[in-house]
């Protein structure tokens, strides 16, 4: 499967002599030295790929460069160096007119602050991208209504934006992006202006829509828990650079450096980890034929703890074909809930007598 979106060694420098600044960055000069000569390096040597149907989350603190990076992906900002490829086409080589065509038909953006037109109805706001495309009125209203229904706004089509709550207004922004049927959605801190409960509701809405629509999404956030909840893959940025890319479990269990480790120290591991992440893979036996309760590799950590509490031995983890792929000793569950940095296969707890029992059934 080829990547839908590719970023290749992207740099963005604002200020004096940006091309020369890129060369200095490549030679090892840091951001502070450049700032002293009037150049600001917002993004430094960023590379990643996004697969079709994937939610790729870019997270970092304010000033890390994540929003600048997002704006280079659809040509709103031109990279100082590097390339962006979308479905194999080099976006950095397109003319302004061609870029506008890509943004109108293939790439949609959902903004943090809704960006709704107050003088247009909910339907008219949702249909705006289609209006820009030149879609006839009847067709764009039909597609806008379908997108609004997907976002839970059926019956609100004739309302005005100021009659909606913040969460509902953000749903209109999402519906507007979906109505164009764009292949790629760029979401820039789209939920960060919402209250915590509404924010979680919007996260649920996005995950539910993604199961059906399978869009390719790049989602920007400064909230680690949001990143862990939404992202199929996550890129962590610091000072303009991507310092680690991987799944939520990769980042949580194998932080690339002390910065990432400190960033994730307060994350609720039970909301992220699955049986596959914590199981002991050093097992014997090809088939799990015991009649005891088992877990699938994607069983959430909290459910795994519940199973462990019901059985007197380690939990057997079996694949779709019934093959035993691992076991989870109770000591390992305790270890992962604690402060220790144990990863799969590195837990200090030795295999206990119960492990032999469960493998004897396998």
Description:
The chain is of the alpha/beta class and 362 residues long. It folds into two domains: 188 residues, Rossmann fold, CATH 3.40.50.300; 91 residues, Alpha-Beta Complex (CBS domain Like), CATH 3.90.1280.20. 38% of the residues lie in helices and 20% in strands. The chain is globular and about 65 Å long. The C terminus is likely disordered. It comes from Streptomyces tropicalis. Belongs to the ABC transporter superfamily. This is Glycine betaine/L-proline ABC transporter ATP-binding protein.
N/C terminus separation? 35 Å
Total count of helical runs of at least 4 residues: 16
CATH domain fold name of the largest domain = Rossmann fold
Order of helices and strands: EHHEEHEEHEHHHHEHEHEEHHHEHEEHH
What is shown here, in short?
Residues 340-362 are annotated as: Disordered. This protein has helices at 18-26, 31-35, 66-73, 96-105, 122-126, 128-133, 137-150, 166-179, 196-213, 224-230, 248-253, 258-263, 275-278, 301-310, 330-337, 353-361; strands spanning 5-15, 39-50, 55-59, 81-86, 89-90, 107-110, 184-188, 216-221, 233-238, 241-246, 294-295, 315-318, 324-328.
Name its key features.
transport; alpha/beta; disordered C terminus; ABC_transporter-like_CS; CBS domain Like; four-stranded antiparallel sheet; six-stranded mixed sheet; Rossmann fold; 38% helix; 2 domains; 13 strands; 362 residues
């Amino acid at each position: 499967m080829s990547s839908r979106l590719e970023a290749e060694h992207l740099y963005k420098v604002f200020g004096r002599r940006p091309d020369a600044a890129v060369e200095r960055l490549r030679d090892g000069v840091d951001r502070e030295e450049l700032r002293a000569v009037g150049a600001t390096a917002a993004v430094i040597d960023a590379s990643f790929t996004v697969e079709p149907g994937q939610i790729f989350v870019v997270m970092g603190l304010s000033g890390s460069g994540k929003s600048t990076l997002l704006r280079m992906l659809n040509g709103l900002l031109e990279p100082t160096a590097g390339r962006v490829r979308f479905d194999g086409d080099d976006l950095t080589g397109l003319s302004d007119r061609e870029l506008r065509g890509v943004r109108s038909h293939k790439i949609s953006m959902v903004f943090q602050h809704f960006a709704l037109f107050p003088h247009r109805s909910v339907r008219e706001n949702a249909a705006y991208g289609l209006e820009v495309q030149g879609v006839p009125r009847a067709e764009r209203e039909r597609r806008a209504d379908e997108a609004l229904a997907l976002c839970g706004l059926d019956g609100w089509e004739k309302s005005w934006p100021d009659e909606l709550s913040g969460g509902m207004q953000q749903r209109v922004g999402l519906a507007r992006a979906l109505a164009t049927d764009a292949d790629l959605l760029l979401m820039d801190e789209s939920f960060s202006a919402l209250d915590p409960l509404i924010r979680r509701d919007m996260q649920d809405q996005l995950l539910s829509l993604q199961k059906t629509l399978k869009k390719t999404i790049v989602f920007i956030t400064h909230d680690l828990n949001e990143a862990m909840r939404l992202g199929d893959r996550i890129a962590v940025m610091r000072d303009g650079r991507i310092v680690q890319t991987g799944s939520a479990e990769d980042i949580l269990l194998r932080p690339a450096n002390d910065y990432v480790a400190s960033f994730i120290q307060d994350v609720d591991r039970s909301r992220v980890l699955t049986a596959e992440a914590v199981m002991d893979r050093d097992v014997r036996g090809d088939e799990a034929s015991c009649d005891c309760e088992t877990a699938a590799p994607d069983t959430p950590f909290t459910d795994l703890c519940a199973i462990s509490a019901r059985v007197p031995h380690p939990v057997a983890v079996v694949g779709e074909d019934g093959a035993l792929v691992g076991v989870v000793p109770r000591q390992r569950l305790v270890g992962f809930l604690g402060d220790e940095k144990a990863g799969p296969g590195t837990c200090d707890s030795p295999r206990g007598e119960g492990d032999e029992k469960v493998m004897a059934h396998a």
